[in-house]
Amino acid sequence: MTSSLIKGAARARYLLDLLSQVPDPRERRGRRHPLAGLLAVGAAAVIAGSRSFAAIGQWAADAGPDVLAALGADRGPADESTYRRAFALVSADVLDQVLGAWLFTRAVRAAGRLVIAVDGKAVRGAKGKDGKAPHLVAALAHGIGAVLGQVAVNAKSNEIPAVRDLLAAFADLAGAVITLDALHTQHDTAQLILGRHADYAMTVKGNMPTLFRQLKKLPWPQVPSVSTVTKDHGRRARRTVKVILAPAWIEFEGAAQVAQLRRTVTKKGKKTVEVVYVITSDRRADPATLAAWVKGHWEIENKLHWVRDVTYQEDKSLVRTGNAPRVMASLRSLAVSLLRLGGHDNIAAANRHHARDPQRTLKLLQAA
User: Fold this and answer.
1) Please, what is the end-to-end C-alpha distance for the chain in angstroms?
2) Using alpha carbons only, what angle is made at residue 260 by residues 259 and 265, rounded to the nearest 5 degrees?
3) Least confident of 132-146, 166-180, 242-256
4) Does the pLDDT of residue 3 top 50, yes or no?
5) Dist CA 198 CA 207 (whole Å)
6) Model-level pTM greater than 0.85?
7) How is 228-291 classified by DSSP, letter by letter?
8) CA spacing 20 to 30 A to 54: which of 103, 195, 260, 325?
9) What are the structural domain ranges in the chain?
10) Average pLDDT for residues 257-277, to the nearest whole number?
């Protein structure tokens, strides 16, 4: 994420201004619609629930000249093929940098201490001839639901280095907390987070059997616990948290505390128990705070990945050409972020609300 993009994002008053920073890769000859306008219309259409280029073209055709002009589409609605060609060529890396930098400034203003969940997701519907699908790693602000950044996983690599690339791209992580699942409980990742003056909360499960067994042997019976009970849809869940100082033998740099989280779920008389451990560099986090971080981490699944899969049917999308699958995923993440920042919890209902009146979508984008 270049410093010029970040500074430009911080200065821009409206989101629509940012889109002009994305370079247009198309040849000048025959170029009728500006790229910023196409991206703005694409974002507006996705906010209204569009899932395909055909739907985006239909939304644009129905939006009316005033709405299109406000979105930078002064020359009227573009057809489906124009969006398809432009989005296949546009730099998804730059688009994610611009959108992420702007959303980061919004999240910082909306939160006290920023807590960020990081996790990956494959865009399964965009599998190529080789059977491989684009795989993206995103960062989501706990409690806010805004996507603060996104990078693609190298086809010959995996999520672990991609997460480090994503974290390294942020302009300023000082004071933030990064929550990661067991796959990303890695020494190098911990060092990177500490080097950015942030804290980590890393989960340890059975994928690290030796460390898991060592943590299990700590004197947990002598440690006081904090418990909460929730009841929902016939299910009763008790979460019990215990926290102790990190023992010296833990090799993770900066490790300050270890937590044991026990989750007991009872449904229809059947009880299941799951125990995980969390290593954190934060010395002041109490049991309730650590439990909230662990629970909040799953917002990236529930508030982003699930919405993209179910509401936007991302895994059924037939968009496969060039960079278009990733650009569409970025627009879906942007739409989810803007709707959540606008106070909407149910994204499907929010899509329907904005689909009924293009002016609603325009106001949401202009307010951004």
Assistant:
1) 21
2) 135
3) 132-146
4) no
5) 25
6) yes
7) EEEEETTEEEEEEEEEEEPPTT--STT--EEEEEEEEEEETTEEEEEEEEEEES-SS--HHHHH
8) 103
9) 3-92+320-367
10) 92
